[in-house]
Design a protein that fits this description.
Aspartate Aminotransferase, domain 2, 4 helices, 6 strands
Length: 139
């Protein structure tokens, strides 16, 4: 995952039995230092790579997508603070693109989020099953 993130994201990953491996960011551009770093930090144990777009900055992950796809590594996008509108659907090859709209976000609705799941029916069905158990809020 990207080396800049909130502690809760790291905790969530650890609670699922995974080990987060940070990728260094260029602090001036808020993008990965280079794609070779991303590639070098993957191993046969790598399950997923999460790219976070922070402080309104987004970047093109296309240069590393073929490398990750060839190895069966899921590509996750955390569009935490860079949602720019309904035409911003994330990279078309990402397994999942997540948008959150908490109170600290630029585009907020105080609470909630949206995830776009691509080409992974099992993941989609598992997420849908969990969501269907949530109580509905009716004012």
């Amino acid at each position: 995952m990207m080396g800049v993130n909130i502690p809760d994201m790291i905790q969530i990953i650890k609670e699922h039995g995974l080990i987060p491996v940070p990728v260094d960011y260029n602090i001036d551009t808020m993008t990965p230092n280079n794609w070779d770093d991303v590639k070098a930090l993957t191993s046969d144990k790598t399950k997923a790579m999460m790219f976070a777009y922070l402080y309104g900055v987004s970047y093109d992950i296309s240069p590393v997508v073929p490398f990750l796809k060839e190895r069966g590594i899921d590509i996750l996008e955390d569009v935490a603070e860079s949602f720019t509108g309904p035409k911003n659907n994330g990279h078309p090859d990402a397994t999942m693109t997540m948008f959150s709209f908490g109170a600290i976000k630029v585009q907020t609705c105080v609470y909630g989020g949206i995830s776009i799941v691509r080409d992974d029916e099992k993941l989609y069905n598992e997420m849908r099953s969990i969501q269907d158990k949530y109580p509905l809020f009716t004012p």
